[in-house]
Fold:
Amino acid sequence: MSLFASRADLFSIGRRAIASTPGIRINPAVVDIPGSDLNLAVGTDAVIGEEVSTRGAAAMRGAFAETARQSQLDRVIYDRSGLTRFGATPAHVDLVLSRPSPSVATPGVVDSGSVVQAADGTQFALDTDAVFHDATTTVTVAATSVLSGADQNVPAYDPTTGMGIVAFSSTPFDTTLTVHNPDSAAGGTDAESDIEYLGRYRGFFPTLSRGVLGAIEYGAKQVPGVVVATATEILNPQGGFPAGIVQLVIGDRSGNATSAMIQAVSDKLLSYRAGGMPVVVSGGTVFFQSVTWALAFQTGFDEDLATARVRAVTVAVSQFLAPGPDNGVLYRSSLLAAAKAVPGVILSDASLVYPLGDVVPTDPTQMIRVLPTSVTFQ
Structure:
């Protein structure tokens, strides 16, 4: 059922109004003759009325956060909370620049802004100068991707596959210098979607009381690129009373974090943590779980499409798991429930070949994630 009056509805209303007018001297049937004056007058009024009705419905939809979309959602959330939508953000990575021998090395600087690139062409610019003295063989420096977006989160350097950051875009002062990233880049995100923006807005009012664990977690997520944030009170082993310190584990969608993200969260928490209450911010450790399916399909369904959807929902189940064994368990039942929602797939408990049971993080900082390449099918 339409939420607004259509042109046909309004034309019908006009026809009934003319036909029901007492003592009218115009034949009501003339309204249905194309091109007649009465047909044109009622038709024009119907077109104008449809436009007014449509705009009114759109304005009403944009008055509520739950129904507003795109620019309307930006306006209603900003008016009520002052929150603005996150745009796309660049990725950050920690680089290791090294050269083989200090005995033949000369001093020099790889300037801030110098560009390095991954095997797939993704480029990063150094955040600070990398200074090499006579005896310096290795320098660690942070870098930021030249472009923004989730596709800038390049994987850690792997010498067997050649993936990761592998080269300078221009020749450095010492041609023996090499570059690689020991850990994955993190923090690159696409522009915030309506659903993500609305979810952040819904968490705003319950955390207006600063200093509580929920507010600390919420404050961390106000840093672009941070998707996972779990705060835990450190307890004194004697008596179990709070020891006056909070541990906060952060990560992006893939569970990764860099030194730049950790520093940005520490700075942001000055407005969210209690005064004098230290919050130790750290990145979590990521465990990539493999998943194997043995699927059957209903007749008439595209098996390739169904398989691709099962892969996608398998990855999605793990995407926002928190760190630690309390809230970060990858449940076998969750994987089966997600796959059952894919049209055309026939599942039983035996369809999930691996893992054999629930996967539980081994320590409070470990986050479980499933990569698309880790999902296989028999």
